[in-house]
Write a structure and sequence with these properties.
By secondary structure, the protein is an alpha+beta fold. Helices cover 50% and strands 18% of the residues. The protein is built from 6 helices and 5 strands, in the order H-H-E-H-E-E-H-H-E-E-H. It has a 5-stranded antiparallel sheet with strand order 1-2-3-5-4, sandwiched between helices. A hairpin with a 2-residue loop joins strand 4 and strand 5. 30% of the residues are buried.
Length: 157
């Protein structure tokens, strides 16, 4: 085998390897789970709430009978405001999608409840933050939706 031909084959091998590496780097990144406790605790401590929030079990507030929840932290208001925090980790991504739907339904129910009761709360509900990543879903209802998104993003690193 001539030296130039061998050189070409080696270069083709390197080129092929480079192409393979480039394509594997373009694959979809897996979604990271959000740290449930960190997200809920930071939302509670770093956002200004008008009402006092109390921790409750997720199943007191949300209809999630058919969802396998592995970890949750939920804070609800006294009822005078719509303010709420929920961070829920599920067994599977499918369960997390169902949990997201349950949280979205909760927001809609709250809109109906507060529409005639305390209509000022509708602004918070319209800007409710619901983020699903991996097997986790986080809900934040407050006057600081942009800050809530930032806090949730930090908890998913």
């Amino acid at each position: 085998m001539k030296f130039n031909e061998m050189k070409k084959r080696i270069m083709m091998g390197f080129l092929g390897a480079a192409v393979l590496i480039a394509f594997t780097g373009c694959g979809k990144k897996s979604e990271k789970d959000i740290d449930v406790k960190a997200a809920a605790d930071h939302l509670l401590s770093e956002i200004n709430y008008e009402d006092q929030l109390a921790e409750v079990s997720y199943d007191v507030v949300y209809d999630m009978e058919d969802i396998k929840v592995t970890e949750s932290v939920v804070y609800v208001s006294s009822g005078a405001t719509a303010e709420e925090i929920a961070a829920i980790k599920c067994e599977t991504k499918e369960d997390a999608a169902k949990a997201q739907t349950a949280l979205e339904e909760r927001v809609e129910e709250q809109k109906e409840s507060f529409e005639n009761y305390v209509p000022e709360e509708l602004a918070k509900l319209d800007k409710a933050v619901i983020v699903k990543s991996g097997n986790t879903v986080v809900l934040s209802i407050s006057n600081e939706d942009a800050k809530a998104k930032e806090i949730i993003k930090e908890a998913s690193k």
